[in-house]
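Bench log. Compound arrived from synthesis this morning; before running ITC I wanted a structural hypothesis for how guanosine-5'-diphosphate sits in the protein. Inputs:
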Amino acid sequence: MSIFHLPRLPSHFPIFICSKPILPAAAALFSSPKTNPISHFSSIPTLSTLPLQTPENLSPSEEPHLEIPIDKLFVPPETDVSPQNAPLSSRILKGSNIVLSKYAGDAQVSQAEFVKSSVRTEDCPSDGMPEFALVGRSNVGKSSLLNSLVRRKKLALTSKKPGKTQCINHFRINDSWYLVDLPGYGFAAAPQELRTDWDKFTKDYFLNRSTLVSVFLLIDASIPVKTIDLEYASWLGQNQIPMTLIFTKCDKRKKKKNGGKRPEENVLDFQDLIRDFFQTVPPWIMTSSVTNQGRDEILLHMAQLRNYWRKH
Ligand code: GDP
């Protein structure tokens, strides 16, 4: 079942009922605003704003402070957002708009192995295990992220070997789910023919792979929004392919002289520009493969999507 087709969220509480409390071990991964979120209510009564947790390596003067209105949070189905449970603000994964649900468990990666490279969707593994596809522009940091997720320095090199760069590469995790590395797009030097092929090949995979739980679309947050990334995200939105936005290189915080923006500003710009293409707000997470920011948050998010998918 697709998890994309969730009910549109009302901008007030409560929505779903949850039976289990948040896992204490995961508590460090949540945003923990120093102030009560109630004090952040904006002048629009239906919007509560929540401060975004900052990466530990930032000096106080550099701390990004994104405010996320309730209607821009990603609340998984069957998630209790009533204040009687833990306050919503304490259940948002750090550096993201994602609320954790009762389905977030088994997030650790204990085993990762390359399984196969496929040139067509129908050649992909057929064991029915859920999978997440990583995709993004060449050089966005996809290999670095994949290695960081599985805590292996060179696992993703497999995808960069000659003959495998244009393939669907499956990595089996804990013998129970897959991370899928798709070829990077937007390589400026590639001939038009190759780009068209890439389009056909990956779009067929997105549209026809029944075990695909969510596409993880990587966007470089250290540079201004690129048209090709917007086109990609909007195509996924229009085709109702479940998508999570992974903003990469969020450690690159030097503001460029010619009006360059900080990662959190680029993150907001991107979301503003794609908003109209989505029925529900897509989940997003800020990451860095240098500091490992967002790593554990991605794994928890994948766990809750996967566990929900398995039950439905
Ligand atoms: P791919 O082509 O998408 O697989 O990208 P790579 O993982 O090979 O990374 C491309 C370049 O970006 C390399 O020089 C990486 O060292 C660099 N890079 C990747 N992730 C990050 C990150 O989170 N922060 C910074 N500062 N650089 C990164």
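What the model suggests: Residues 32 and 135 are 30 Å apart (CA to CA). The longest strand covers residues 212-220.
ITC booked for Thursday regardless.
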